Amino acid sequence: MGKTALGVAAVRAGESRRSDRLFDDPYAQAFLDAAPRVLPDEPAARGPMAALGAVFHAHGVLRTRFFDDYLLAATTAGCEQVVLLAAGLDTRAFRLAWPDRTRLFEVDLPDVLTFKQRVLTGLAARPRCARLVVPADLRGTWSPELVAAGFRPTAPTAWLAEGLLIYLSSDEAARLLTMVGELSTPDSQLASDPGEPLRR
């Protein structure tokens, strides 16, 4: 399991322990427990790395709550489908109060989704919407796998590319966003991290 996905899980687990938390992810700590020794036990207390870690933590907390609100607003307004691109260890299917008939697709690499499902199965976690898992590499052509999993291009969709574009080259990002456009109705929506630089 990659450090980035577990790092985000660590942020969400930490926020969930706060009494004034902005969200609650009751599954995040279980992912960390299932992959010991991947992340350092104690972050650096001082210096540039500590400052960078604090920024990463704050950004992760705020974007999680922001995108929680975005997805719930989009589905309440009529988007029947949600697609999480590079879903990682996201547990929104399990922790958010979705409108009836919401269908949520999680797209990510097979090993990420396998690890995630193993942990969630061990917790007997039950999704609060129709959850469909799509193993695929977002650097390639992934739309056939999404459609095969039951995605309907004619239905309004809320897309989320959280923490994804920064890891793609400009060409890869353009290809991914083109596929999103080809699969979207005019009343679909797309959200991503603001200001993410694209690699050349």
Description:
- This protein has 200 residues and is an alpha/beta fold.
- The protein is 43% helix and 13% strand.
- It has seven helices and five strands.
- It has helices at 3-16, 28-34, 48-76, 92-95, 110-122, 143-148, 170-182; strands at residues 81-85, 103-108, 130-135, 157-161, 189-192.
- Strands 3-2-1-4-5 form a five-stranded parallel β-sheet.
- Helix 1 packs across helix 2 (28-34) and helix 1 packs across helix 3 (48-76).
- Residues 195-200 have low confidence and may be disordered.
Please provide a brief summary of the model.
With 200 residues, the protein is an alpha/beta fold. It has 7 helices and 5 strands.
Topology:
Blueprint: H1 3-16, H2 28-34, H3 48-76, E1 81-85, H4 92-95, E2 103-108, H5 110-122, E3 130-135, H6 143-148, E4 157-161, H7 170-182, E5 189-192
Parallel strand pairs: 1-2, 1-4, 2-3, 4-5
Helix pairs in contact: 1-2, 1-3
Low-confidence stretches: 195-200
Q: Approximately how much beta-strand content do the residues carry?
A: 5-15%
Structural class: alpha/beta
Order of helices and strands: HHHEHEHEHEHE
Cα shape: globular
Main sheet attributes: strand count, strand direction, barrel closure: 5 strands, parallel
Q: Which quaternary structure do these chains form?
A: single chain
What does the radius of gyration come to?
17 Å
The largest beta-sheet arranges its strands as 3-2-1-4-5
Helix-residue proportion:
40-55%
